[in-house]
Design goal:
The protein has six helices and twelve strands. The chain is an alpha+beta fold. It folds into two domains: 3-69 and 88-116; 145-302, Sandwich (Immunoglobulin-like). The strands form three sheets. A five-stranded mixed β-sheet has the order 3-2-1-5-8. The protein has a five-stranded mixed β-sheet with strand order 4-10-9-6-7. The longest helix has 34 residues, at 37-70. Mean pLDDT is 83; it is low at 119-141 and 301-308.
Length: 308
């Protein structure tokens, strides 16, 4: 291979790498605000995948474009191409490079998953890696971990704070403090999904699934059911409030002093209105769960500000 060709390939590779790194940095702006410590890990992984994918995409498209534009046969050339029976070196290279990339992506992805310390029905076991320690061991270093029970059913969320004997249809969380949720389902599979938290966890009936994370940004966010669970599953949403530890403790105190009352349940209200009008539809549905009786309930869905 000529030196000029080698230099050209090096320059092209450097240019592609620069463009890919730029695209990787742009990827951060495509996502919602980073509201948990785990979101930083997920966004770094996403940026890495975007940069790598951009490099591969531009490299493949560039090679194809070069072949189409500059490696054409002559207008009246109807001869066969050269007889190439095989190239062991080339076959090894184009097998080894994708294999190395897949192993690299898998290793990086698992390290992120391991650092997030997600526990499920099988109790995820951490590898003894240097990177796996910070989040998994945070609670064992004397810091208080807030424990909250999350109950899901068609089609409403209910949150129970056992230490304070508070129930709510809004999830309130202290900022910069480790939180452990005990996820439960009373009927079908639901999905606990908060886009700004970069967390999505299936909730399986007859299982208790622990989910740990650390909120790092105060604000109002939106919890959605990411698994289709029936007719009114789109209405199965709830506000998530991340507030300062002082405001969080004050909210718990105020909520504990409020008498329990039935909360607003959009699915139940829609079903009741449809029953009153006796509107006939082509689909069947179960009766939504009755409005939960809680100490604190948020405003109806239509009164909410735009969710994140």
């Amino acid at each position: 291979m000529k030196i000029r060709t080698i230099l050209t390939l090096v320059v092209v590779a450097i240019a592609l790498a620069g463009i890919s790194l730029w695209m990787g940095k742009q990827a951060y702006s495509w996502l919602p605000p980073q509201a948990t410590a785990e979101s930083l890990l997920i966004d770094d992984l996403f940026s890495f995948l975007v940069a790598l994918g951009t490099f591969i995409f531009l490299g493949v498209i560039g090679a194809l474009s070069y072949a189409v534009l500059f490696q054409q046969a002559g207008k009246y050339d109807f001869s066969d191409g050269p007889a190439i029976e095989g190239n062991i070196t080339l076959e090894i290279v184009w097998t080894a490079i994708p294999l190395a990339l897949v192993i690299w992506i898998a290793t990086y992805s698992y390290q992120v998953y391991d650092q997030m310390s997600i526990l499920g029905p099988m109790q995820h076991v951490h590898l003894a890696t240097a990177e796996a320690a910070p989040m998994a061991n945070e609670a064992s270093q004397g810091e208080k971990m807030e424990r909250i029970e999350v109950l899901s059913r068609q089609w409403v969320w209910e949150f129970h704070y056992p230490e304070q004997h508070v129930t709510s249809t809004e999830l309130h969380l202290p900022n910069n403090q480790r939180v452990k949720l005990a996820l439960k389902s009373e009927d079908v599979i639901h999905g606990f999904y908060i886009p700004a938290f970069r967390l999505k966890q299936d909730i399986i009936p007859n299982q208790v699934i622990d989910l740990e994370f650390t909120p790092i940004r105060e604000g109002r966010y939106r919890l959605r059911d990411s698994e289709y669970s029936g007719t009114y599953f789109a209405a199965m949403q709830a506000d998530v409030m991340v507030e300062s530890p002082q405001a969080y403790q004050q909210w718990l105190k105020d909520a504990a002093n409020q008498p329990p009352q039935a909360a607003y349940n959009q699915a139940f209200e829609e079903y009741r209105q449809r029953s009153k009008t006796q509107t006939s539809t082509a689909w069947k549905t179960i009766v939504p769960a009755a409005p939960p009786v809680v100490n604190y309930s948020g405003s109806p869905l239509e009164d909410k500000e735009l969710s994140r």
